[in-house]
Design brief:
The two termini are about 20 Å apart. This protein has a six-stranded mixed sheet with strand order 1-4-3-2-5-6. The protein is globular. It has two domains: about 180 residues, Nucleotidyltransferase, domain 5 (2-Layer Sandwich), CATH 3.30.420; about 55 residues, no CATH class. With about 240 residues, it is an alpha/beta fold. It comes from Trinickia fusca.
């Protein structure tokens, strides 16, 4: 799943936002100069590394400094109502944004870390404007064709990362609400797939569904409880680290 925005006159808008004239050559910039005024910066964050079910979702956002969005913060620090309101403002006011994901199948085959990096890479590459620098929340960066910088706690420090955090969180929460309509016994609308007491009890009673991450230990245990085997039964449990 990938959702993108391609604004009108995207190239000119991106250059104006970065303070770049048509004559400036980005290739001439000093390598790894993260504070260069001519950079087109995107913020990148993810949602859904820890849950036992559903995809991991990532977003990339290039904010427009001429259209400031008040109230941006780490999505986890905001109420659901506030996140929804900010989501609409980000979609409306940003120069470009892209939301992408990695599926449950990709999580199980690659592991959650590599699936997260894949979702982030898809989000950056799906932007309608090509950034020159990606600021990533966390302590590592996905493999990108542009420069990147990992910022621990960036979702509370860098507005563009905060915006990406909100887009990713709202998108994933909406996906789990839709999933709840198909599989109401698990309560996805209440816990978004996280390993709450309610969710673990439902797994024990009903067994996993096709949207559960089989590489995660609690899901494997639920399969075993119901006499079902998976390809991860012999794993050491690290696949479900979150």
């Amino acid at each position: 799943m990938t959702a993108t925005k391609k604004p009108r006159r995207a190239s000119a808008a991106a250059k104006a936002a970065a303070g770049v004239s048509e004559q400036v050559e980005l290739a001439d910039q000093v390598e790894l100069d993260f504070d260069s005024p001519v950079d087109i910066v995107c913020g990148v964050d993810e949602a859904g590394r820890g849950p036992l079910a559903g995809p991991v979702v990532a977003a990339a956002v290039i904010l427009d400094p001429r259209r400031r969005i008040l109230g941006l913060d780490d999505s986890k620090a905001l109420s659901a109502k506030k996140r929804e309101a900010l989501y609409e403002k980000i979609v409306e006011c940003s120069i470009a944004y892209c939301v992408a994901s990695a599926s449950v199948e990709e999580i199980d085959s690659l592991n959650i870390l590599h699936a997260t990096m894949l979702a982030m890479k898809r989000a950056v590459e799906g932007l309608g404007v090509t950034p020159t620098l990606a600021r990533i929340d966390g302590n590592r960066c996905p493999p990108l064709s542009i420069r990147s910088e990992a910022i621990v706690g960036g979702d509370a420090l860098v507005p563009a990362i905060s915006a990406a955090s909100i887009l990713a969180k709202v998108t994933r929460d909406r996906m789990l609400v839709e999933l709840h309509e198909r599989f109401p016994v698990y309560g996805f609308n209440a816990h978004a797939g996280y390993g709450t007491r309610q969710h673990l009890a439902a797994l024990a009673e009903h067994g996993p569904c096709e949207h559960h991450r089989r590489s995660f230990a609690p899901v494997r245990e639920a399969f075993a409880l119901h006499g079902m085997r998976t390809a991860f039964d012999a794993a050491d449990g690290t696949g479900g680290a979150n």
